[in-house]
Amino acid sequence: MMNKIWGFFIISGSIYCILTGRIDVLNKEILESSNETFKLIVKIFPVLALWLGIMNIASSSGLLNRMSEKLSPVLTKLFPDIPYGHESLGLIASNIVVNMMGLGNAATPFGLKAMKSLQKLNKKKETATRSMITFLAINTSGVTIIPTTVISMRLMHKSINPTIIVLPCIMATIISLISALIIDRVFYKRNTNA
Amino acid sequence: MLNTISNLIIPLMVLLIVIYGLYKNNNIYDSFTDGAKESIPMILSMFTSLLGMMLGINIFLKSGFLNFLLNFIKPIFELLKIPVEILPMALMRPISGSSALAILNNIMSSFGPDSLIGIMASCIQGSTDTTFYVLTLYFGSVGIKKIRYSLKVGLLADFIGIVTSIIVVKILF
Asked: For chain A, which terminus, N or C, has the lower number of CB atoms within 10 Å?
């Protein structure tokens, strides 16, 4: 799937550029993307290191495990493949809670740490597990209750009511989250039956 | 009120973790530095996947091919009385977070943040996440190559989220 889409992006974009005579754009973008990736990595790196450090305190002091045990009854329904009380449940919960508050940048390190923890349970190291896919289905569909970036942008544009979008956002988020979980189940069932 | 809660959550979390660590008599400083070290291999494996994704997305987006495709979908939007200007935003949202944000900024400056389309675009931005970025980053960080059905799930959920945003905003405003 990723192969086809990546190929489609590059082939369709390149051909369209050549047909419309904008080969300079194409040249620029090919070189520019490495630069842009580097800038992004430089932005993520320190935040990631910081939060992985703090999470490690929580992990070695046993706080994470305690939290995972408390959350297990609920979360193992969503993630039936994760053993009861496994530390990844605590990490998944932290990622979701921080994401809900609209703090996407701080949520990413928890999510990455959760992936690392889920990878430990994975038998085929290069293939995504069911739990990973469910976790990312939740993440990609978005769980934000307070969309901080959007609100601050609305403030910047002098909106009379910057937070008016919170209610419709929550409604849309809930519906897309539930759909994501249902779609995830359907695809999982279909994949295991086939 | 909501802002205060959201501002407090991170500091409180750090405080709680540090206090609990000290209470359990842990080497909290060593734990911190050891944990932070884990970021280095993660960043290295993320870099290559992000680089690949960025190359594909940049060529695709900057070529203008997407705008060309939009011409074919426009009539459907006009028929449903949905502002056509929302379309680039909706298509961009799952692919590139920063481009979607740039479009949102444009919509707000040309139509105003409180216009129907301004609210619609805000809602789309707020209620979904950048599927391609999330999948690349998260799977890339642990070296997963076979992502199975995850992209399909992510994109379908995005589609539902965007359609719901449009419908909810049309009903409420």
From this structure: C
Show residues of chain B in contact with A57, CB under 8 Å. Answer: 17-18, 21, 26, 28, 31-32, 35
Cβ separation B122–A154 shorter than 8 A:
yes
Q: So where are chain B's domains?
A: 1-37, 41-172
Supply φ then ψ for residue A89, to 5 degrees. Answer: -65, -40
- List b or e across A46-82, with b for residues whose CB sees 16 or more CB atoms inside 10 angstroms: eebbbbbbbbbbbbbbebbbebbeebbeebbebbeeb
Backbone Cα Rg of chain A: 20
pLDDT tens for each residue of B68-87: 888 888 888 888 888 888 98
**Minimal Cα distance from B150: which residue of A?**
A133
Instruction: Please tell me whether residue B146 adopts helix, strand or coil conformation.
Output: strand
Mean pLDDT (chain B) is: 89
Question: Which of B141, B145, B143 has its CA nearest to residue B40?
Answer: B141
Three-state secondary-structure class, residue B35: helix
Tokens 């896919």, residue? A133
Using a CB–CB cutoff of 8 Å, tell me whether A77 touches chain B: no
pLDDT band at A68 (very low <50, low <70, confident <90, very high): confident
Model pLDDT, residue B167? 93
